[in-house]
Amino acid sequence: MPARNLLFVSLLIATLLIFPYTFGQFLKVGLLLGEPYAYWSSTKLSGIEYDIWRVIGVELNMNVEFYVLPFSVLDVSLAPKLGLDVIAGGIHMTDERKKVFKFTQPYINSGLAIVIRKDVKWDGDIEKITFGVKKGATGEKIVQDWVKSGKKIKYSTFVSNEEIVTNLLIKKIDGAFFDYINALYLSKKYGFQVHKDLIYSINIGAVVLNISLEKKLNDAISKLESVGTIKRILASYIGAF
User: Fold this and answer.
1) CATH superfamily assigned to domain 3-107+205-238
2) Which helix H or strand E contains 64, and what residues bound it?
């Protein structure tokens, strides 16, 4: 099936969830699936971004429609055609993305972390452990750069984070690269270690497609940050940090 048709079908079945308030105006939020930002818990949508955008809707007195989307929609030629107001889901505000998308102000600080099995004692020497990396992701580029620099790196490549987690659990690999918030979530869920030094730090925000809402969204985010709501949502998934 052509990619465009596949996307259309996914939008139809990918689930429209309406936050149950009877407000007059709708806020259409596309959520990119990925724990712990947005994911299915049994038949219920859950996650950090889901909870954040529910309370933003309440703050704005708007009825929130959630559309579950694949990460591939985060494309400058495709995203503006979806008819959404925002797209969220742990989106790193990279310099490249900021050149082509308008973002809300950041509301989560994250980065790239190394997750280690709980039974592995590691002093930070990258030649002493076996890494798992996701094909095409930043972690793969990092280990390839290490190899090019002359380091003797052992690593295996996988197609999904779920595969990587499984291989950590069955002790086929020792460590892997994850978004920092995701790493803290996995640490809480599986007991993994999160290495103290991040590869890099970066902000997370939502892509604004309806520019007329930009100021209202940022005002709502600022208020929710000032009263500690966003921090409490984060803590409910990853604990104190």
Assistant:
1) Periplasmic binding protein-like II (3.40.190.10)
2) strand 63-69
Summarised one tens digit per residue, pLDDT across range 97-149 is 999 999 999 999 999 999 999 999 999 999 999 999 998 888 999 999 999 99
**So where are the chain's domains?**
3-107+205-238, 110-201
Report if pTM > 0.85.
Answer: no
Angstrom distance (rounded) from CA 14 to CA 67: 7
Q: How many whole angstroms separate alpha carbon 151 and alpha carbon 165?
A: 25
Task: Specify the pLDDT at position 1.
Answer: 44
> Which CATH number is associated with domain 110-201?
3.40.190.10
DSSP 154-212: EEEEESSHHHHHHHHHTTS-SEEEEEHHHHHHHHHHH--EE-SS-SEEEEE--EES-GG
- pLDDT of 12 reads 37
Q: What are the tokens at 118?
A: 């709980």
Q: Does an H or E element contain 220, and which?
A: helix 214-226
